[in-house]
Amino acid sequence: MTSNELTFSFGGAGKPVHRVGYGAMQLAGPRVWGPPRDRAAALEVLRQAVARGVNHIDTSDYYGPHVVNELIREALHPYPDSLTIVTKVGARRAEDKSWPAALSRSELTGAVDDNLRHLGLETLDVVNLRVGSPRGVDKASIAEPFQVLVELQQQGLIRHLGLSNVTPEQVAECQAIAPVVCVQNLYNFANRQDEALIDSLAAQGIAYVPFCPLMGIAPEQAAKLSQISAGTGATPTQLVLAWMLRRSPNILLIPGTSSVGHLVENLDAGKLPLPASVWAQMDALFARP
Are 240 and 224 in contact (CB under 8 A)? Predict the structure, then answer.
C-alpha cells in the first residue's frame, strides 16, 4: 500500500488520484499572506508537480488570499483532464492575517464564486467545508453551512463535497444530508484522535486527508526516526509519509513545499521499497494510543 501508483477516487466513480498529492498553501508569502518571495519558483513547483505525476492539488482561495489559486491557474491552466483540484471554504483572511470563520450563506456562496473565478473553472472538483479554528474543532452543528454547499452542488458549481477540521459526529450529521467524499483533519504523531474515524471512513470508501502530518514529533521520536532511516536510503520525513500511506488505503497525502527538491523527496515517499523490519519499527514508534 505504499506505492504512489496506487490510486483513490473521490466519490468512488470519480477521477482516480495518486495517493501522494500536493498541498499548495506554502506557495503564498509568509503566514500564507501575499505573493511568494519567488514567483517563478512557485510556478515551477506547480509545473513540476504535475509533470511528475501529481493529479491531486489541495488549495483554497483564502491562501494569500487569492494568491495561490492565481498561481495554480497561471502555471497549469488549461488543466489536464486527470487533475483533481480540491479547495476549501468556511474561513476568510482578515487584515491582521487571522483566519476568522466565514460560514454564512453569502460568505460560502462568495467563496465558491471566488474559487471558480481565480482558478478559471466552471465547476469545482471537490469543496471541503472547513470549520473550527486553528485552535481545534468546534463541536456545534454544521448542517446549515453544509446545506448551502449542497445547494451549490445541485446548481452544478461543485462536483463533490468534503469536510475539514471536523468531529466524527459532524461527519455523520453531514452524511445524513448528502454524500461526503473526503475528510481533511489534523493527524500526526501527537494528534491521534482520529484513529477510529480513519477506519470508519475506509470501510465506506471515503478519503482521509491528514494535514500537518509531520508536526508533533517529539525530540526522542525524531532521534528514533533518524536511527530507523539510517541505511534505508530514505529520509525521516519520507518514512513518516510512507507509514501514513501504509496505515490505511484511504489516506491521501498532500505534503506542501515551495521547493522542487522537497517536492521530489515527498513524492518518492510513495515508492519506497522498505523491508518488513522497517515497517515493524515504524509501527512500534507510531503505535496506537
Answer: no
Q: Look at residue 55 in the predicted model and tell me its pLDDT.
A: 96
Residue 182 confidence (pLDDT) above 50: yes
Number of other residues whose CB lies within 10 A of the CB of residue 221:
16
Q: What grid cell was written down for 88?
A: 476549501
Q: φ, ψ for residue 89 (rounded to 5)?
A: -135, 165
Cell of 117: 473565478
Residue 12 has pLDDT above 90, yes or no: no
Residue 287: predicted pLDDT: 81
pTM of the model: 0.95
- Would you say 270 and 20 are in contact if contact means Cβ atoms under 8 Å apart? yes
Residue of 272, 269, 271, 267 lying closest to 45 (CA atoms): 267
Question: Which active-site residues does the annotation give?
Answer: 63
Q: Compute how many other C-beta atoms are within 10 angstroms of the C-beta atom of residue 109.
A: 17
Instruction: Return d(Cα 273, Cα 146) in angstroms, integer.
Output: 41
The position carrying cell 503505535 is: 287
pLDDT at position 176, please?
Answer: 98
CA distance 261 to 254: 16
Query: What is the chain's Cα-based Rg?
Result: 18
The span from the first CA to the last CA of the chain, in angstroms, equals 23
